[in-house]
């Protein structure tokens, strides 16, 4: 499969990872076997890493988790820069994502999931802030998600407000 079709394949799987190889083959003009082989190769090369489901947890009763974004100011180390501290932060199971940022007053942005606000606070004060390279942190709790991974999570009800014009 050529690179152009391979990119199209990746976009299709990114949009709907439950799509069958047969469906993808029809869309790309390829055989089912060619699609299956391409997917297997992309998985082996770790281009395709996971097939996740996007769950709108706000619609699940008694969802026990709190999500936070934490900005972290870090002192980079000689020869390893930010990588060493980022790799240490990645090892914590409550950390869902770590990003190196540019153009901000902080260096790393962390997405964290905890059972309570207290658990998140304890993570910051007892685990994160105690790392040698960490200079400061700023924690932002996520109150509501409107859109995630390109998917709008809110049902749009018709706006029933009366239009007022001067």
From TrEMBL:
Recorded hits in SMART domains, A to Z, give: HTH_ASNC
* Key word Acyltransferase present: no
Q: Where does the HTH asnC-type domain start and stop, copy by copy?
A: 1-83
Keyword vocabulary terms for this entry: DNA-binding, Transcription, Transcription regulation
| PROSITE patterns, per database record | HTH_ASNC_2
Which GO MF terms does the UniProt record name? sequence-specific DNA binding
Q: Which InterPro entries match?
A: AsnC-type_HTH_dom, Dimeric_a/b-barrel, HTH-Siroheme_Decarb, Tscrpt_reg_AsnC-like, Tscrpt_reg_AsnC/Lrp_C, WH-like_DNA-bd_sf, WH_DNA-bd_sf
Gene3D superfamilies for the chain: 3.30.70.920, Winged helix-like DNA-binding domain superfamily/Winged helix DNA-binding domain
Q: Which PANTHER family match?
A: HTH-TYPE TRANSCRIPTIONAL REGULATOR PTR2, TRANSCRIPTIONAL REGULATOR, ASNC FAMILY
Return the protein name: AsnC family transcriptional regulator
Identify the taxonomic lineage of the organism of origin: Bacteria, Bacillati, Bacillota, Bacilli, Bacillales
């Amino acid at each position: 499969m050529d690179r152009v079709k391979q990119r199209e394949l990746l976009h299709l799987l990114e949009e709907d990872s439950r799509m069958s190889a047969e469906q993808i083959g029809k869309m790309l003009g390829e055989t089912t076997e060619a699609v299956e082989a391409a997917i297997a190769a992309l998985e082996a090369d770790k281009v395709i890493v996971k097939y996740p489901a996007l769950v709108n947890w706000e619609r699940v009763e008694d969802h026990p988790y709190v999500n936070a974004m934490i900005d972290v100011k870090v002192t980079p180390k000689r020869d390893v820069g930010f990588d060493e501290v980022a790799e240490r932060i990645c090892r914590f199971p409550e950390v869902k994502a770590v990003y190196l940022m540019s153009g901000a007053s902080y260096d790393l942005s962390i997405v964290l999931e905890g059972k309570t606000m207290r658990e998140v606070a304890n993570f910051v004060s007892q685990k994160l802030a105690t790392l040698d390279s960490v200079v400061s942190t700023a924690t932002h709790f996520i109150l509501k998600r409107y859109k995630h991974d390109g998917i709008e999570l809110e049902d749009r009800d018709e706006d029933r407000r009366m239009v007022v014009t001067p």
